[in-house]
Every structure is written in structure tokens, then in C-alpha cells.
User: Which sequence fits this backbone?
């Protein structure tokens, strides 16, 4: 038994203190009969009740027979602050029966996933609705019904048949990370997946969840090393790890991650025509996942070239894990630069580039250019560096606001918008309709010169219900429906002095934009039918 945290009294526990927990690096079934790889994840220390239940997550594990939940204790007896981490049993049958390790693995992966977002964005991530997220790690559902359910704060994990055993999908690290990411995104930006969200926004959800799942696992050097060996079919001394080997290792890994059998297929080679019109969210998102993975592969190859061919395989594997981690954090950091509603793939690209410019002004190794090039290759137009912050058109803004209130009071943000007609006109808000949502969040990041920079992010959404006639007269929308809901909004970022430094707007009463968003009644019906399996329930994890 390995004690992961030394004996201390609760008063000795400091904010930000971390503890190492053993989890499965991929899943419970190793390749070619080998033992499954394990990994150490660092998670914040917290008080854990039996369950295990912490402040953010509650793990429920059903007994193999029946519906009774079997609570598990992960801490030393009598000390809920002292987490005890144990290695998995070496035998597959014993591993599948080990309820305690299942709880430890699910808790560790869930906590490390949420910590990845919080440390990258410099803020706490909310749930939708508030409360704990319950992970039902061995539920009475099929593998295809494994998933996060919106509005309930529940993630269900079923089982799959492997080698004659029933294997809980919760033992696969990527699946846990994928579903927890859905919950995080839903709390962060609820409108990205609500009833008015388009297929493109649901595809964004799936692509981001896949990228977190793939790259968080690929950030383990041991996993990358194993993939390089498998991709080359065994290495001889002095053999060159070329781009083909890197590409094969990365994409084979992404495709075969779940149970060493196909789950996801990031597009390789020619991109399907009109892929942005594909109505199945997983299939549309897979194209962008492929573009990001090619970005990783390109930067990985360039890093290896800088260090020369004399590197050991372990060093090349470490380079792969470093690049994967940097790319993953770039993507996550970009989320806080994206509008709260009607997001597009170009919004994602702009958010990633703008956030990285603020974080790393000098792009010495071409990370941003690699992103731009791969997104351009799949038909997503490059983001111009001129006015990427989107505030050059809003010179001379008035600031009749209180800085202390700006970072905490949505009313102060609404006042700022109202007092600046130029900004109000740019957002094309409907003057008679109040904003349906305004959220204010502060965040902190470390600048390249080592100073802590505090920023304020404010998002607002306006939803306007219009009759059929009003929608046609005011926006030119043709519909057979009695009424339509149209909406827009924006994201405003303020620096520590309360000055606007970034704006991403989705104008509400904009005829051209709303015509593109609305499309037609026929497209609405087609989108609804195609996305019915993932809207509100992000299922489809299994085969």
C-alpha cells in the first residue's frame, strides 16, 4: 500500500497542495498480453468522504449484481485528508473486480481533468446546474449510452465485452476525460449545447472533448514511447524516427485508444468536401481533431529536428508529450476568448491564437503558424493579426464604471455596454429585450516576465422571440413556424485596470448573420434529427 500524502492535520493543508494518484494510463487491457500501463496524475488535496465524495465529484459504483451502490473509502481510516493511492492488481480478473481501484482511477482522472482546465484558465469551473457531478462508474447502461447528461450533473459509464469479460468503460482514461470535459464545457458555456445550439456547436463540444481525451493521455511519456515502438514495429540502433513514424504513432493512438479497438477516426489525408455541412456532430468534429493532431505531429517533428538525430527514443517520446501538453493548453486557453453563443470553428482558431499571443508574445517555435496552416488546410480561413483583439474599432470608449464591481457584478457590465453606443450598435442588441444571461468571471495568469496578471471576462447573451411576420420584416427570415427564437451576444475581456482589451461579438439583430444561422425549416428539422442522440445527452462513446 502506497501512502500518497503524508500524515498532517487539516490545519496544515494549504490551498493548492497536490497529491499523486495512480491511474491507468490508457485502459485495463494492455497490448499484446502486456500489463496495462499506469500513470501518476497530480490532483489537488481535498477532504474526501466515503463514496468517494469530494467537493466537486461524487463517485458511485454499483455492485456487479443488482442496483446497490457500494461506497468506497480512498483515505486512511479516521483521516479524510490523507488519500491512499494503491497500484492496480496485475491480473485482469482481479482488476475488474477491484472496486476500490476503479473508484481511485475515476476520481483521479476526473480531478486531473478539471484541474487541467482550472490551472490553464486561472479560475474555477462551474457546473450546469451547480452542485457535484456524479460519476456512475459501473452503471446499468450499455456502452453506447455511456455519457454526460445535461441538466442532471450525472455521467453514466456502462460496460463493454472484452476477452470474455465485462469491462467498465470507466476504466478507460480517455472516456472519463472525454465525458468530464463535456460537463466542464457545459458549465463554462451552457449555450454551446442547449436547444438553440446548431450542429456546429455540438460538434465543437465533441471535438474539444476528444482533444482533451487524446492529448491528456498522450502527454504521458510512457504512452508515447510505447506508441513509437509499435508504429515502427520495433527499433534498431540508429534507426531514424521520421515524420511517417510520428504521424502513424499519433493517429493510430488516437484511433485505437479505446480498448485497442476503433472508437474515433480523425480524418487523415483528403478532407471530405463540405465537411462543415455534415449533420452528425462526431463526424464533423473529427475533421478538426485531425487538424489539431497534425499540428502536434508537425511541431513534434520540428522539435526532434532541432535536437538532432542522436536523441534516444525516450527523448523523442518526451518531446511528443511536451508538444501535446502545450497544444492542449493552447486549445483550453482559447476557450476564454470565444463568444458564449453561436461559436464557429473560426472562433476556435481566433480564440487559440489571441490567447496564445497574450500568453507568449514571441512565437519562437511557430506554434501559432502551425495552427493557422492546419486549419487553413481544412478550409477554415486564417485569422488576421490585424486587430485580432477586435477592439481597434472601439476607440474612445467611456468607462463610467466601478472597477471593483466590474469583476463581480453583471449589472456593471451591462452598464458599460449601455454607456457606449458604439459597442451597443456593434452587438446589434434588441433595445426592448433585456439580456437573458450575463456572466462575469475573473482569471489570473503568469506573464512571460513572471508577473501575475488579473483579467476580467464578461459574457452576455440576448434571446429574442419573434412572430413569423416580425422575423420576416425585421430579419428577412422565412419560416412556417408560429414564432422563432434568435439570439446573439458577446465576450468582453478587461485588463486589471478595467480597460477593454478584447471583444468577440455575435450581433443579435443582424440580417446576414441570422439568415446564415437560421437557414431554413428543412435544415432545422434535419439538424434536429441528426443531433437527437447527442443533444442533452452526449452519448455515443461505445461501439
Assistant:
Amino acid at each position: 500500500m502506497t501512502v500518497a500524502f503524508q500524515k498532517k492535520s487539516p490545519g496544515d493543508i494549504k490551498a493548492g497542495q497536490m497529491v499523486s494518484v495512480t491511474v491507468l494510463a490508457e485502459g485495463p487491457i494492455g497490448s499484446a498480453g502486456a500489463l496495462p500501463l499506469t500513470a501518476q496524475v497530480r490532483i489537488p488535496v481535498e477532504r474526501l468522504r466515503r463514496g468517494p465524495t469530494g467537493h466537486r465529484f461524487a463517485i458511485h459504483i454499483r455492485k456487479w449484481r443488482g442496483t446497490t451502490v457500494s461506497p468506497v473509502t480512498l483515505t486512511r481510516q479516521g483521516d479524510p485528508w490523507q488519500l491512499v493511492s494503491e497500484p492496480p492488481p496485475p491480473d485482469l480478473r482481479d482488476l475488474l473486480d477491484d472496486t476500490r481501484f476503479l473508484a481511485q482511477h475515476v476520481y483521479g482522472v476526473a480531478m486531473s481533468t478539471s484541474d487541467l482546465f482550472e490551472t490553464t484558465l486561472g479560475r474555477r469551473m462551474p457546473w450546469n446546474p451547480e452542485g457535484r457531478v456524479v460519476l456512475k462508474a459501473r452503471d446499468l447502461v450499455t456502452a453506447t449510452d455511456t455519457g454526460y447528461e445535461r441538466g442532471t450533473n450525472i455521467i453514466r459509464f456502462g460496460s463493454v465485452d472484452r476477452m470474455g469479460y465485462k469491462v467498465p468503460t470507466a476504466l478507460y482514461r480517455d472516456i472519463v476525460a472525454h465525458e468530464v470535459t463535456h460537463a466542464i464545457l457545459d458549465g463554462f458555456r451552457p449555450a454551446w449545447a442547449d436547444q438553440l445550439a446548431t450542429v456546429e456547436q455540438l460538434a465543437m463540444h465533441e471535438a474539444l472533448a476528444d482533444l482533451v481525451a487524446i492529448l491528456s493521455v498522450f502527454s504521458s511519456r510512457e504512452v508515447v514511447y510505447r506508441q513509437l515502438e509499435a508504429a515502427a514495429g520495433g527499433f534498431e540502433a540508429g534507426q531514424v524516427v521520421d515524420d511517417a513514424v510520428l504521424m502513424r504513432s499519433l493517429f493510430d493512438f488516437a484511433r485505437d485508444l479505446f480498448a485497442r479497438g476503433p472508437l474515433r477516426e480523425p480524418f487523415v489525408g483528403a478532407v471530405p468536401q463540405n465537411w462543415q455541412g455534415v449533420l452528425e456532430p462526431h463526424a464533423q468534429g473529427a475533421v478538426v481533431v485531425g487538424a489539431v493532431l497534425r499540428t502536434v505531429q508537425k511541431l513534434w517533428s520540428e522539435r526532434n529536428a532541432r535536437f538532432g538525430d542522436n536523441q534516444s527514443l525516450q527523448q523523442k517520446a518526451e518531446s511528443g508529450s511536451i508538444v501535446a501538453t502545450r497544444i492542449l493548453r493552447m486549445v483550453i486557453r482559447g476557450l476564454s476568448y470565444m463568444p458564449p453563443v453561436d461559436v464557429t470553428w473560426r472562433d476556435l482558431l481566433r480564440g487559440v491564437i489571441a490567447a496564445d499571443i497574450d500568453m507568449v508574445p514571441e512565437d519562437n517555435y511557430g506554434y501559432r503558424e502551425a495552427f493557422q496552416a492546419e486549419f487553413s488546410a481544412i478550409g477554415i480561413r486564417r485569422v488576421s493579426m490585424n486587430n485580432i483583439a477586435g477592439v481597434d474599432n472601439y476607440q474612445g470608449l467611456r468607462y463610467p464604471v466601478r472597477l471593483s464591481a466590474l469583476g463581480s457584478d453583471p449589472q456593471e457590465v451591462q452598464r458599460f455596454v449601455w454607456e457606449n453606443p458604439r459597442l451597443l450598435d456593434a452587438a446589434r442588441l434588441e433595445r426592448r429585450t433585456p439580456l437573458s444571461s450575463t456572466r462575469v468571471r475573473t482569471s489570473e495568469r503568469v506573464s512571460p516576465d513572471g508577473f501575475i496578471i488579473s483579467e476580467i471576462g464578461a459574457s452576455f447573451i440576448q434571446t429574442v422571440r419573434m412572430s413569423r411576420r416580425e422575423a420576416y420584416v425585421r430579419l428577412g427570415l422565412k419560416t412556417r413556424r408560429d414564432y422563432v427564437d434568435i439570439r446573439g451576444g458577446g465576450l468582453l475581456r478587461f485588463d486589471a485596470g478595467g480597460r477593454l482589451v478584447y471583444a468577440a461579438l455575435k450581433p443579435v439583430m443582424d440580417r446576414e448573420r441570422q439568415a446564415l444561422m437560421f437557414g431554413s425549416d428543412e435544415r432545422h428539422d434535419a439538424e434536429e434529427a441528426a443531433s437527437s442522440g447527442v443533444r442533452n445527452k452526449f452519448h455515443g462513446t461505445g461501439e
